[in-house]
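To illustrate the input format used throughout this study, we show a single complete record. The first block contains the structure-token representation of the backbone; no residue identities are included at this stage. The design step must infer an amino acid for every position from geometry alone.
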């Protein structure tokens, strides 16, 4: 009988990564919940680019009834913690879900698929592919998003989580937690919005993440869903857009 508990799969596989890369299960699950706020994925065909340890992909398979998810990562540096690929495979084995989760080791730039995805996720990965410090940023951002669009169903949804290039969080505890985040390498949401439009996406929506340490509450969500509140917390935002036509 397969063990279907994501938390036990995560705990069992966590020994494969460096201790500094291991976050508590409750944090990982809350992060997925927050990312997926208002996003329906039941029965979806998902591509997750830059999956890292694969937690989101396994969360989608375990709790959100997706039909299929390709958990893609090149695992060649660029934000990749050592051991993440092994951890992803270990969770897949523990959960016995290889019929739903496909772990693919590949650079997204060279990845092609005959499959058309209904949902494509880029969670904290695009800034590794398009650092703000390099020239030609907007063309490169558009090229990557167009590549994603070419693999999507018409009307499919792209979901991007990124961090603003500024952070003004006054709370020492959180500043300490974010000390390894290189904010200056990140693009503003307006730059990703422009790249999404240039790549043929429409119905673009932006929301700022409710801080993960706060309880799920609609009033708090409204209060924290602003640029300024975001800069004073963790500077994370989520962009969602619709693949209008194949490019
Ligand atoms: C900061 S980690 C984010 C991991 C995961 N999405 C998360 O939020 O926990 C960025 C990931 O993107 C991957 N990555 C960077 N550039 C990539 C590319 N061109 N193709 C595939 N994966 C890439 C890295 O290997 C790394 O695992």
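Output of the design step:
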């Amino acid at each position: 009988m397969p063990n279907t508990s994501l938390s036990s799969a995560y705990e069992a596989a966590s020994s494969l990564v460096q201790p500094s890369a291991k976050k508590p299960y409750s944090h990982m699950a809350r992060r997925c919940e927050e990312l997926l706020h208002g996003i329906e994925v039941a029965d979806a065909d998902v591509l997750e680019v830059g999956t890292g340890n694969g937690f989101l992909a396994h969360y989608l398979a375990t709790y959100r009834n997706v039909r299929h998810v390709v958990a893609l990562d090149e695992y060649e540096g660029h934000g990749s913690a050592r051991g993440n690929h092994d951890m992803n495979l270990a969770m897949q084995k523990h959960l016995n879900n290889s019929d739903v989760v496909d772990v693919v080791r590949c650079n997204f730039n060279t990845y092609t698929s005959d499959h058309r995805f209904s949902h494509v996720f880029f969670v904290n990965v695009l800034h590794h592919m398009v650092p703000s410090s390099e020239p030609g940023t907007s063309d490169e951002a558009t090229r990557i998003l167009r590549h994603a669009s070419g693999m999507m169903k018409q009307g499919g949804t792209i979901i991007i989580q990124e961090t603003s290039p500024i952070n003004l969080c006054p709370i020492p505890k959180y500043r300490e937690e974010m000390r390894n985040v290189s904010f200056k390498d990140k693009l503003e949401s307006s730059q990703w919005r422009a790249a999404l439009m240039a790549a043929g996406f429409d119905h673009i929506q932006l929301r700022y993440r409710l801080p993960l340490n706060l309880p799920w509450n609609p009033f708090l969500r409204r209060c924290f869903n602003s640029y300024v509140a975001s800069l004073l917390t963790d500077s994370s935002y989520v962009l969602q857009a619709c693949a209008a036509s194949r490019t």
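Structural context for interpreting the output: The chain has ten helices and seven strands. The pocket of S-adenosylmethionine is lined by residues 49-52, 72-75, 78-80, 84, 107-109, 123-125, 128-129 (CB under 6 Å).
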